């Protein structure tokens, strides 16, 4: 009954480049080239929630397939190196404000038309034009002229008023120079902009997209990546096959990929064990218990870490949680190591830093509130004047969060001596609605996976006043100032330096509590001889050999 | 014209008036005090070992529900991760769950919520469905038509949908209902969604019985509607309801588990067997006891209710005597 | 007979309207904004929510929405899901799967339940009787997800007798285990009811006459006893088909069957009234038609029942 998306960040499993520590590639030798050439595999998937349009896909099921069907301007190497050009020939800038982007000549969409500069500009303008209602529309807010194409609803989505029609249809900051070149002018200097370009919102769209309804396109998507779309039988199967005209680096080594759409991960896991399924990205919790997956899969199992962190957030708009001492006390009363060992059987790492350490620019071990220190915790609680009433920790019950939330609540209860319990909210939608409306009456779980690999993505959205995911309404003027300075820094190094200072201030205030860093356990069949996972733990489809 | 639904889950109308409440049929050969149907049943019951076994078990379970501390000294709510998934030992007879809580204590404390919710929902369902069924069956005509159609509407409602809507509306997150209120809500939703079946059962039972000779005789003797329903119809139509009702106790314990699983039912720190089974399912390969122990208690409890129902039913049904 | 049928069919109309409205209103009343959770841990842009709300006319009141929906439904338009798929497509692909599964479950349930019922009804209170009682109750008491998981694990993975999941062709042989899992909870009801019914009729005059006549026992049971005891069983089985189809959600999930259960559940939590009603409408029709069939069957089984 897993209905919600895996509740990580919006951009569930899209592009990003991080240092994947270990265990990415599996298997010893190379595959048999002949067997691979016409080979086919069946892999685990879930039904995409929406028609697959890159700028309108934010969930795991569709996001994964969109990533395979498209190749962007830059790509994030599996081994965790810095982003490198993929479709882009060059991305040049002098001031981090005006970028000249040149794309490689002669690459094609799956319908045979050539990928041109215009395809990027049109796609971005479509997504940024607010009446089109694209989920990823706000990703283009860096670009000059975005405020003319994207208008806000004056009284929120629920209010009676409607957003005014935007005054422009296209962003003034985008300009096509010639068939292979376009120029992007940003509203303000942003050093991290080129890094963002590998994210799926920035993919090009073929001319055909603009002649049909987006949902029609999304049912039979036309991309420019190493595989092309064949067919999609709802809730059953999505068929993909090698795109023979693909001429960039990452060509497919096998031919056909069938994505079998499961409702239940245990069913998929049993299929994997019975050699009915060739790859499963995340083995279910029931197999992690007692390390069963290791005995089940042997050397077909893979263990990786992904750049995501699980938090418990405070509703700082609630008076009871406004004292930083109380927040620190709660954080110090949680024994993260024990939760990692007993609840997750060692498959998650206890969190000890604010930004996930796999993210470039993030400093490891900078969370002083992440220690387990019940004595100091109790003392701080007394200094804060104690806590009256019951502390309730909320989670969405449609995904497996109950065990660890129960454990956290129990530790708070035992170590601080206050009443605490965890409570499930039936659906992710209701859960998010309450969070968005700032109506939470207790702590709540949250998770963040970087959208693109830079520490900026762990500070601006989460800890800056008005940040897109700063749901607890944390606000510290000094943090805001430092983050602003960091975002506009001329170089990435200077930017990372300033962000580190901002994080030090965050550490004093403890606006949320990092609990654990995500890990991922995957498995494959005996048929697959070689495969790699990408930087966020997704299967790199082009690396598969049989 | 006979109504289509005359045919019923009780097979054929009782062929003979076996009970003789009306003085006219009372034979002179009996010098015992005339007993009612229930008196007869009680005399019959007393002789049955089945009745005594099941009654004892039920009393034990009821005691468990009322005074769990008598049975388990341990703490059912608070655990410690250092004991997580420990095997059964002298301290924890059934071992510990993933949160390090004493499974034995939890099973004992779980009796209350499970039994209270299941039994009260069954009673509610029988009461609502039974009353509607008797009215519909006895009155017939447009009353019957209306009630039957209402039942049809509710019958078409998927259980999960109804339960989610009722419970999220009244028991969503942020609502600070007390334990008793949450239990009440769960009971009400189970009742609201299950009564149509009982209503159909009762209605067809009444339809089959109401033309029986002894009812006709009672009516001829001038018995009022209320008396006919309470004294004659009800005892004779109760048997199928009892069979159904006792089995229903079992499925309601399971239904309560499903609701908790979906996050709309009972919430921690309330413990129930259903919650334990659905929580333990993930660890079935590592610690099967987490599912086995609550399931064993659940099956025993259900079994006692079914056996009791069976004994009572046989005692009530003169044809099987 | 014809008039009776006509009357029954006419009665379907108010039930149909009542059920669809009730369901529509209930789904509408489910708390939560259907689009609030669409963007993960980030707020969805207001523009996106406004766009979707307007597209699906969710800003109108429930009566207007329902009236619009019914108007389209009468014209054969089931509407679209929030992910812009035709609901009629979903119904066409997932219904046959659920129906197949439910029919297999029904058959298994009838065979096991009736068999157990006859055996125990003839020899009441013996060892066999108690054994059947305990084992059927065990099936009731264990939640479906536990039974399903265990059978899939043992038969599919450990012993390799079956494939763990059902392929999209839905072959009959693949459906036996899922069918058993789905029907397991009802087996006990069928067995109990059949047992009671057989035990009652066992003492009826006509059975005594048949035995006295010197008929072989097999004929007495097979022809006289069974036929007369079938009515309650048929009632249960008939109404159970609808319940099985509506309750297949867990079984479908475990065995990877693309059926309606998952669709309904997903649609409920995302507040997709149109999908829920669309699927339930067909379910209600199945239920109503089964009821009618059961009633007609009575006449065949029991000559005392006549429809005019």
From TrEMBL, chain A:
GO cellular component: ATP-binding cassette (ABC) transporter complex; periplasmic space
Gene Ontology BP terms: peptide transport
Pfam families, A to Z: SBP_bac_5
Matches recorded under InterPro entries: Peptide/Ni-bd, SBP_5, SBP_5_dom
Domain Solute-binding protein family: 83-469
Residues annotated as signal peptide: 1-27
Record's keyword annotation contains Signal: yes
Keywords: Signal
Any one GO MF annotation of this record: peptide transmembrane transporter activity
Stored PANTHER family: ABC TRANSPORTER SUBSTRATE-BINDING PROTEIN, PERIPLASMIC BINDING COMPONENT OF ABC TRANSPORTER
Protein known as: ABC transporter substrate-binding protein
Biological source species: Micromonospora orduensis
Automatic annotation (TrEMBL), chain B:
Transmembrane segments: 50-71, 115-138, 150-170, 182-202, 242-266, 286-308
Biased amino acid composition, Polar residues: 1-11
Region entry Disordered, spans: 1-36
GO biological processes: transmembrane transport
Keywords: Cell membrane, Membrane, Transmembrane, Transmembrane helix, Transport
Residues covered by the ABC transmembrane type-1 domain: 111-309
Record's GO cellular component terms: plasma membrane
Organism domain of life: Bacteria
The keyword S-adenosyl-L-methionine belongs to this UniProt entry's keyword annotation: no
InterPro entries: BP-dependent_transpt_permease, MetI-like, MetI-like_sf, OppC_N
Stated name of the protein: ABC transporter permease
UniProtKB/TrEMBL annotation, chain C:
Membrane topology of this protein: Multi-pass membrane protein
Transmembrane segments: 12-30, 101-119, 131-155, 175-194, 276-301
Subcellular location: Cell membrane
Domain ABC transmembrane type-1 span(s) in chain numbering: 95-298
GO CC terms: plasma membrane
Keywords of this entry: Cell membrane, Membrane, Transmembrane, Transmembrane helix, Transport
Biological process per Gene Ontology, one example term: transmembrane transport
PROSITE patterns: ABC_TM1 (PS50928)
A matching Pfam family: BPD_transp_1
Family membership noted in the UniProt record: Belongs to the binding-protein-dependent transport system permease family.
This protein's name: ABC transporter permease
Organism: Micromonospora orduensis
């Amino acid at each position: 009954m897993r209905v919600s998306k895996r509740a990580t960040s919006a951009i569930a499993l899209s592009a990003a480049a991080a240092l994947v520590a270990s265990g990415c590639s599996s298997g010893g030798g190379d595959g048999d080239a002949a067997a691979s050439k016409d080979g086919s595999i069946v892999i685990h998937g879930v039904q995409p929630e929406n028609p697959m349009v890159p700028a309108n896909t934010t969930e795991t099921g569709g996001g994964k397939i969109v990533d395979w069907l498209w190749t962007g301007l830059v790509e994030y190497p599996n081994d965790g190196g810095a982003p490198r050009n993929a479709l882009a020939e060059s991305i040049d800038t002098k001031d981090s404000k005006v970028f000249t982007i040149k794309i490689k000549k002669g690459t094609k969409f799956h319908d045979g038309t050539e990928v041109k500069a215009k395809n990027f500009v049109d796609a971005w303008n479509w997504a940024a034009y607010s009446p089109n209602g694209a989920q990823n529309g706000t990703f283009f807010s860096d670009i000059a002229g975005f405020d003319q194409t994207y208008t806000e609803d004056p009284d929120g989505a629920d209010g009676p008023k409607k957003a005014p029609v935007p005054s422009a249809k296209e962003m003034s900051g985008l300009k096509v120079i010639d068939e292979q070149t376009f120029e992007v002018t940003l509203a303000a200097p942003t050093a991290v902009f080129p890094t963002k370009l590998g994210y799926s919102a920035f993919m090009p769209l073929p001319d055909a997209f603009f002649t049909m309804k987006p949902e029609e396109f999304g049912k039979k998507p036309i991309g420019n990546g190493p595989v092309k779309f064949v067919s999609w039988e709802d809730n059953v199967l999505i068929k993909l096959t090698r795109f023979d005209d693909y001429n960039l680096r990452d060509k497919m080594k096998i031919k056909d990929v069938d994505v079998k759409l499961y409702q239940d991960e245990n069913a998929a896991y049993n299929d994997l064990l019975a050699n009915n399924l060739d790859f499963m990205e995340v083995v279910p919790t029931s197999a992690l218990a007692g390390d069963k997956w290791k005995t089940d899969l042997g050397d077909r199992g893979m263990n990786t870490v992904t750049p995501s962190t699980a938090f418990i957030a405070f509703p700082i708009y609630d008076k009871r949680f406004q004292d930083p001492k109380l927040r620190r006390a709660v954080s110090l009363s949680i024994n993260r190591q024990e939760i990692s060992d007993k609840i997750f059987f060692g498959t998650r790492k206890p969190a000890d830093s604010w930004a996930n350490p796999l993210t470039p620019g993030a400093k490891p071990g900078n969370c002083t509130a992440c220690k387990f220190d019940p004595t100091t915790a109790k003392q701080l609680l007394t200094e804060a004047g104690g806590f009256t009433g019951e502390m309730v920790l909320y989670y969405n019950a449609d995904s497996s969060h109950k065990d660890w939330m129960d454990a956290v609540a129990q530790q708070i209860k035992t170590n601080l001596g206050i009443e605490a319990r965890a409570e499930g909210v039936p659906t992710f939608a209701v859960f998010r609605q309450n969070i968005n409306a700032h109506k939470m009456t207790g702590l709540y779980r949250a998770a963040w996976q970087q959208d693109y690999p830079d520490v900026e993505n762990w500070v601006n959205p989460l800890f800056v006043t008005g940040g897109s995911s700063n749901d607890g309404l944390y606000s510290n003027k000094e943090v805001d100032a430092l983050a602003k300075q960091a975002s506009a820094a001329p170089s990435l190094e200077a930017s990372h330096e300033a962000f580190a200072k901002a994080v030090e201030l965050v550490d004093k205030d403890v606006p949320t509590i990092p609990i654990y860093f995500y890990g991922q356990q995957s498995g494959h069949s005996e048929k697959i001889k070689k495969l790699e996972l990408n930087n966020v733990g997704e299967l790199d489809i082009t690396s598969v050999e049989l | 014209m006979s109504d289509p639904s005359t045919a019923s889950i009780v097979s054929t109308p009782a062929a003979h008036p076996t009970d003789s409440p009306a003085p006219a049929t009372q034979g002179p050969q009996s010098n015992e005090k005339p007993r009612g149907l229930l008196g007869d049943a009680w005399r019959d019951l007393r002789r049955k070992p089945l009745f005594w076994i099941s009654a004892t078990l039920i009393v034990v379970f009821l005691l468990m529900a009322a005074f769990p501390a008598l049975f388990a000294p341990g703490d059912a709510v608070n655990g410690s991760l250092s004991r997580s998934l420990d095997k059964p030992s002298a301290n924890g007879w059934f071992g510990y769950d993933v949160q390090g809580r004493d499974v034995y204590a939890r099973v004992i404390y779980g009796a209350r919520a499970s039994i209270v919710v299941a039994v009260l929902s069954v009673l509610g369902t029988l009461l609502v469905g039974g009353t509607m069924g008797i009215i519909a069956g006895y009155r017939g005509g447009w009353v019957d038509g209306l009630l039957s159609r209402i039942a049809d509407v509710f019958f078409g409602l998927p259980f999960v949908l109804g339960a989610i809507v009722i419970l999220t509306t009244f028991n969503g997150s942020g609502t600070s209902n007390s334990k008793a209120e949450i239990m009440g809500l769960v009971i009400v939703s189970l009742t609201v969604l299950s009564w149509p079946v009982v209503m159909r059962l009762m209605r067809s039972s009444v339809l089959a019985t109401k033309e029986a000779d002894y009812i006709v005789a009672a009516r001829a003797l001038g018995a009022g509607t209320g008396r006919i329903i309470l004294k004659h119809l009800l005892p004779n139509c109760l048997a199928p309801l009892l069979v159904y009702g006792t089995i229903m106790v079992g499925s309601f314990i399971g239904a309560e588990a499903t609701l908790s699983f979906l996050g709309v039912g009972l919430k921690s720190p309330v413990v129930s067997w259903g919650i334990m089974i659905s929580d333990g399912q993930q660890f079935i390969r590592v610690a099967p006891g987490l599912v086995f122990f609550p399931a064993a208690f659940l099956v025993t409890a259900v079994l006692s209710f079914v056996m009791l129902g069976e004994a009572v039913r046989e005692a009530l049904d003169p044809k099987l005597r | 007979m014809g008039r009776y049928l006509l009357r029954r069919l006419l009665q379907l109309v108010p039930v149909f309207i009542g059920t669809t409205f009730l369901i529509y209103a209930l789904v509408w009343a489910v708390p939560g904004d259907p689009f609030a959770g669409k963007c993960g841990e980030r707020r969805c842009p207001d523009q996106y929510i406004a766009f979707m709300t307007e597209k699906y006319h969710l800003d109108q009141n429930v009566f207007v929405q329902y009236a619009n929906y019914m108007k389209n439904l009468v014209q054969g338009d089931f509407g679209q899901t929030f992910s812009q798929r035709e609901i009629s497509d979903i119904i066409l692909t997932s219904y046959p799967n659920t129906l197949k599964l439910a029919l297999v479950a029904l058959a298994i349930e009838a065979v096991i339940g009736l068999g157990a019922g006859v055996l125990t009804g003839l020899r009441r209170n013996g060892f066999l009787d108690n054994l059947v009682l305990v084992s059927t109750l065990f099936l009731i008491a264990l939640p479906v997800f536990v039974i399903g998981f265990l059978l899939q694990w043992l038969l599919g993975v450990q012993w390799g007798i079956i494939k763990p999941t059902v392929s999209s062709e839905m072959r009959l042989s693949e459906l036996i285990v899922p069918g058993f899992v789905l029907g397991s909870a009802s087996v006990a009801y069928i067995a109990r009811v059949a047992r009671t019914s057989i035990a009652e009729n066992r003492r009826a005059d006509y059975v005594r006459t048949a035995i006295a006549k010197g008929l072989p026992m097999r004929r007495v049971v097979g022809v006289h006893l069974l036929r007369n005891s079938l009515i309650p069983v048929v009632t249960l089985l008939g109404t159970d088909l609808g319940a099985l189809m509506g309750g297949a959600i867990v079984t479908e999930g475990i065995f990877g069957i693309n059926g309606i259960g998952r669709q309904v559940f997903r649609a409920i939590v995302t507040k997709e009234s149109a999908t829920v009603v669309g699927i339930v409408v067909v379910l209600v029709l199945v239920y109503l038609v089964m009821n009618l069939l059961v009633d007609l069957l009575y006449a065949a089984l029991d000559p005392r029942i006549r429809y005019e």
